[in-house]
Amino acid sequence: MLELVQAGGWLMLPILLCSAIAMAIIGERLWTLQTRKVIPEKLMTGIWKLLQNDQLTDKHIVEIENGSPLGKILAAGLINRHLSRDLVRESIEETGRFVAHELERFMNTLGTISTITPLLGLLGTVIGMIKVFTVITAVGVGDPATLAGGISEALITTAAGLTVAIPSVIFHRYLKRKIDELVVGMEQEAMKLVEVLHGERDLADQK
Length: 207
Description:
The chain is an all-alpha fold.
């Protein structure tokens, strides 16, 4: 491995750095964006029971807010539950935009890595080929070993850049799709809460 890095030249360093950052982001986002963490299955049921029994307190709201991304959105509606439907919905939407932004944390960085690593590999290819032609200009083609150094540098950096870029693109698209699905799910749950708070949905029907 060390030999490959050395053979690939100095451009292997930013490619390896991009690789480490991409793996860290992918691991962190896969852990954070689990559906059970973002949209707890029994959260709405618990809130419905508290509302139905008139037991909802400020302490409950704080616990709901700190429990999950969906909890932050629902807590915004619960805090303003005595206001008009439009104001409750507005507070939920405002908090929802913030939560959606938080879910997309590091995604721009991952997208940037998936874009620049092939370019870094291409740059390494160009530098390697320049070295090859420089050697040819200086000593001709009579020294295969010298020519092989530049060619190997060109190929190694290209391969390294693509090796980082391909999984980065795959996971970037997967995570973006996952975030979109989670946002839609949270919107549905939030609208249910608005309907419950204003008597448009029967609590007894929600289990």
